[in-house]
Write a structure and sequence with these properties.
By secondary structure, the protein is α/β, with parallel strands linked by helices. Helices cover about 25% and strands about 20% of the residues. Strands 5-4-1-6-10-7-11 form a 7-stranded mixed β-sheet, sandwiched between helices. Strands 2-3 form a two-stranded antiparallel sheet. A two-stranded antiparallel ribbon has the order 8-9. Helix 1 crosses helix 4.
């Protein structure tokens, strides 16, 4: 059931990754949680959000993923070779020809994501006039995750990978969730500037934040108060954690119950049961973890924002 109305927004769901750390021959986004595949929870969230179109990027076991959602009102985008999150957006280019609205990029492995949070992200993005707005969150233990560095005005100055961060930056607890709102024409203009000049040899969507700023555009950030809903599933342990969080909530977490995130620095997320999100967010310029924004270098700590494309 649609609760919000964002008809001028196209949602792009990153769902092409294999999910090798799940130790299963099943595509990661098809693993069940609370009676639905992970991707089913994300699609339900977007239905409540009321976007104009939903594009789903698929790659690993793509026919099996399609078959699992025979009645879904989505457009499938094939990423035959998973070469990173930026590459996934490039593959969606033909489907987005002449599109001039907002592109909302979400991860297909975040089953606790709420439409209310995405609604606030889109509202904040529109009001800010930014070419990109990054959804962040704060973690009790941010080790391993791409840090959000704010400027003096509270905007985003950089996204810095944990292994490249200074001691001062490592002390920051605000991390990148891998969820973005873009002015698509501005994004399209800088996508050609992405390179594979990084440790993984992939195209990272995170790098577009810097590219947009260099092109003279504004970049904004919105901090989600509850880090639990950004939990990305990369391991069986994280899947079990998501199940525990979902079951512990009374009433169960509805997809449209997101509280308004904080747009300014400060303010830790509310003390919620469950643990930190899993799988690290990718760093900024190069050196991001393999695949989607999830998956910290050398193995992510338990629980972090995820991203299902091209990652393990």
């Amino acid at each position: 059931m649609t609760r919000y109305h964002h008809a001028q927004t196209v949602a792009l769901v990153l769902a092409a990754g294999q999910g090798t750390r799940m130790n299963s021959d099943l595509a990661k986004v098809l693993h069940p949680m609370a009676g639905l595949p992970l991707l089913g929870h994300v699609l339900g969230c977007l239905e409540v959000l009321g976007v104009g179109r939903v594009l789903v990027v698929i790659g690993h076991q793509r026919e099996r993923v399609r078959a699992a959602f025979p009645d879904a009102e989505v457009e499938w985008v094939v990423q035959a070779e998973q070469r990173g999150t930026g590459h996934a957006v490039l593959m969606a280019g033909p489907a987005l020809e002449d599109f001039e609205g907002t592109l909302l990029v979400v991860c297909g492995d975040t089953p606790l994501l709420r439409a209310g949070t995405l609604h606030h992200l889109l509202e904040h993005h529109a009001a800010s006039g930014a070419a990109v707005t990054v959804l962040s969150t704060r973690l009790p233990d941010p080790k391993g995750y791409g840090r959000i560095v704010r400027d003096l005005e509270g905007g985003i100055a950089a996204i810095v990978e944990d292994r490249e961060a200074t001691p001062q930056q490592k002390a920051l607890d605000e991390i990148n969730s891998g969820i973005y709102a873009f002015q698509y024409p501005a994004l399209e203009a800088v996508l050609a500037g992405l390179t594979t000049n990084n440790a993984q040899g992939e195209y990272y969507l995170t790098d577009t934040v810097t590219l947009l700023q260099r092109a003279g555009h504004k970049a904004a950030v919105l901090c989600a108060e509850d880090h639990r809903e950004l939990l990305g599933i990369n391991t069986p342990e994280q899947l079990a954690e998501a199940e525990r969080i979902h079951a512990a909530l009374d009433p169960p977490l509805p997809p449209d119950a997101g509280g308004a995130p904080s747009g300014a620095p400060g303010g830790a997320p509310g003390g919620a049961p469950g643990g930190a999100p899993g799988g690290a967010s990718g760093g900024a310029s190069g050196g991001a973890p393999s695949g989607a924004p999830s998956g910290a270098p050398g193995g992510a700590p338990s629980g972090a924002p995820g991203g299902a494309t091209g990652g393990a």
